[in-house]
Amino acid sequence: MSAYDSDNIFAKILRDEIPSTRVYEDDDTLAFMDIMPRADGHLLVIPKTPCRNLLDATPAQLEAVMRTVQKLAQASKAAFDADGVTIQQFNEAAGGQEVFHLHFHVLPRHEGVPLRPAGQMGDMDAIAQHAEKIRAAL
Ligand code: AMP
Questions:
Q1: Which end of the chain has the smaller Cβ count within 10 Å, N or C?
Q2: Per CATH, is 9-137 categorized as 3.30.428.10?
Q3: How high does pLDDT run on average in the chain?
C-alpha cells in the first residue's frame, strides 16, 4: 500500500487550503458536504489525523470517526425526514477509493429513491441549504 500523501484533497480541506462546506467538527473528526452528492444531504466524515483508509487506520481513529458517523447519520436522517441512511467506505483504487484520506460517506435515503450517479457536480446553493438543515438537526 502506498504511503499517505499529505497533499490529498481532504488534507487540504483540513488545512483550509481549499473551501469546503463544514457541518460538524470535534477535536478528532470533521464532517463536510460531498460536492458531488448522490443524495440530498450526502456528507463525508474524516479523521483529522492522517491515514489512507480503513486498512491503515488505528483503532483510535476508527472509534472517533465512527462516533461522528453515527452522530451525522442520526442528524441527517432527521434533517431530511429520511427512511434510512446508507454508509459507504472504499479502500484503495481497486476498492473504489478516489481520495486517499480515510472517509465515510453518509447518505440519507428515502424509500424507492435510488442514489444519483457518481461524478456529477452538485448545486452549491442547494448543498449549502442541505448543510444548514443538518447543522440545525445536530
Ligand atoms: P471515494 O474516494 O470513492 O469515496 O470518493 C471521494 C468522494 O469525495 C466523492 O464522493 C467525491 O464527490 C468527493 N469529493 C471529491 N473532492 C471533494 C471536495 N473538494 N469536497 C467535497 N467532496 C469531494
A1: N
A2: yes
A3: 98
